[in-house]
Structure formats: C-alpha cells, structure tokens
Amino acid sequence: MKRIIAIVLAAMMLTAAFAGCGGTKNADLSGVLTEINTKYDLSLTEIDTTDKLNKYYGINPEDVKQFAAETNQNNNAAIEIVLVEAVDSDAAARVETALTTRFNSIVQQYSSYTPEKLDMVKVCKVTKDGNFVSMIVADDAAGMSEVYNSSIK
Question: Are 144 and 33 contacting, i.e. CB atoms less than 8 angstroms apart?
Fold first, then answer.
C-alpha cells in the first residue's frame, strides 16, 4: 500500500512539474506599454477601446481578452504599437491576420510615400506567442519588442 501511495505521489509531482514548463503566459499589457513609453520617451495617442481597435485594425472585440495600443500618425514617421492578448488560439490567429494586413498596408504606404523610412519598417513585424499578438512599428522596434517579449511569462 505504501508503494502505491508513493508511486501516485511521484506521478502527481511529475505532472505538476511538467504543467509549469509550458504553462499559460501572463502579462499586463498596459504595464508593458507604459514601460515602453518610459524607456523610449514616447508621447503617443492611446487607442483606448476595443471599438477603436476594431475600427483601426479590424480586430473583433470578442477576440480580445486585453490590449494596449498607441499610435502617432504624422508626416515624418508613423509609430504604431499594438499589443493584444486574444481569448484563445483561434482568436489569436484572427488578430495576427488583422495586424498582418495592417502591417502590409504600412509597408505599401512607406514604399509609395516615405521610401527613406522603408528600411525601418522592413525590420518591424507582427509576432504571435501563444495568445499574445503584437505589432510594433517604430525606429526602436527591436528594443521595444525585447521589453514586450520579456514581459510575457
């Protein structure tokens, strides 16, 4: 009987250990965006509702668990930071598609109207990690992405 209990307890501990390895990712996206704003001294316009997120990016509000987004549209350089946690993997795929569509539009716009900034845009990208999807278009996109990626646990 003791042997059976020991085996069951060992199996439970092993299961708990593996559950922690690939577990659910967590991040406070508003906090991440605040950290990016502070580190890179940005002053952007907040996109503060899921309705606006839908209007500007075509992201269905029902697909969004949480988000943080800001933009600065001006003639010299557009900055767009969109961080989204989707409700599930299917929703994350739809958010990724919507942001990729927007990103491709940005690339096309820069190709036509602001070719001197096209190289900056080409190093930017849309990323998906589990249910987290991001699009960061800015001069310091690589550094901003590091802040974002290190915040997703």
Answer: no
- Radius of gyration over alpha carbons of the chain, in Å? 20
Give the closest residue to 80 by CA, choosing from 89, 88, 90, 70: 70
Cα separation of 56 and 109, whole Å?
15
The continuous run of DSSP H or E covering 45 comes out as strand 45-47
What pTM does this model have? Answer: 0.81
* Residue 86 to residue 59: CA distance in whole angstroms: 10
Domain ranges of the chain: 25-151
Give the tokens for residue 46. 């907040």
User: For residue range 80-135, what is the model confidence (pLDDT) as tens digits?
Assistant: 999 999 999 999 999 999 999 999 998 888 888 777 778 888 889 999 999 999 99
